[in-house]
Amino acid sequence: MAETATGFNIVLVEPEIPPNTGNVARLCAATSSTLHLIHPLGFSIDDKHLRRAGLDYWQHVKVVEHKSLDNFLGRYEDEELLLFSKKGTRPYTEAPYRPGSFLLFGKETEGLPEELITRFSHRTYHIPIWGRVRSINLSTAVGIVAYEGFRQTGFGPHRPA
Q1: Using one digit for the tens of pLDDT, what is the confidence trace for 81-110?
Q2: Would you say residue 4 lies in a domain?
């Protein structure tokens, strides 16, 4: 698997809200996961809100930036890509997580591009929602999915106490 030492590869496709990305970066630091950011971003990587949400953990996060979704897919299409969208037909608990898997999440206002969901429909999963909301916050969704992946894979080399 590519890029990550012990965790997952968390991929944010065109994220728009700095605090969400900062929170995901902090999660990546906590889980030794690599953060992939696919441009265009809805903010500057130097945004103070992004940095504040990640607190002082940025030096512990491996961040890989990609110019576009096509650029990312050209490099990683053959990797274990798992997509998460409200349009997925199976729950996130059925995803075949493996150490180093790439967990893809779409931008806050639109989710993942429809053509990507169609192309990888066999690898697209959802987080069930029972209440009267359209979606779950991006950073919350990443946390739910990542920790389910760690649960299924035995929590990697850093087992919980």
Answers
A1: 999 999 999 999 999 999 999 999 999 999
A2: no
